[in-house]
Amino acid sequence: MTMTSYLEATALVDYNHPSIQKLIIERSWKEAKEYDKIRDIYDYVRNQIKFGYNRGDDIPASEVLADGYGQCNTKSILLMALLRGVGIPCRIHGFYIDKKMQKGALTGIIYTFAPRNIVHAWTEVHFQGKWMALEGVIIDDMYLHQVKDRLCSYNDGHIGYGIAVKDVKNINLCWRGDSTYIQNFSITEDLGYYDNPDEFFAAYNNTKSWFKKAMLNLLRKRVNRRTDALREGKL
Known about the structure:
Layout: H1 18-26, H2 34-48, E1 50-51, H3 61-67, E2 69-70, H4 72-85, E3 90-98, H5 108-113, E4 117-127, E5 130-133, H6 141-147, E6 152-154, E7 157-160, E8 163-165, E9 187-194, H7 197-203, H8 210-231
Parallel strand pairs: 1-2
Antiparallel strand pairs: 3-4, 3-9, 4-5, 6-7, 7-8
Helix pairs in contact: 2-4, 3-4, 6-8
């Protein structure tokens, strides 16, 4: 299997952007061993890029880095750019997930306007001959610590606040050479594999209409203030 298409830069996976190259150099990720590259980049995106909501799903990795926060789709784009930027092959796996999983993080009118089935993606990394899902990158440790006891029981699992897991008592988001998950319990449909997020979001997007984009931009700062307050234990 050729890995060329899983290493390419794209408009969204813009790992040649100066800010991304600067981060890679500062962290000495290119000099690390393969396992350490994946682990350290995954840990960086998970905890240094806070869980929050950007202006859209299909924004460049450099913009996600500049924002300093992201959700499933945007964190996956940044994760992919950093991995490809140090020579690690990766791809996008797309899904629909039940919006009930977002309740608590999203409230009021923005929850009402969210589609019943939300477009969701995670990065899969190729390591030791296998593809591994890195969905756990979405939720940072501080946020998880504050909300995990608030999750609601649902279909023999637990959901809410951007989390959907089978067993809330055994959430382990650290990457130790295997797949990590944090929202997969709410998957309603598998949308397949894509070489890059540009192709996936051209086909599937939560904010295709101008009205939904305008609503998101109007309300997302309020949502991000809420996620910050949850993270800081103020709600």
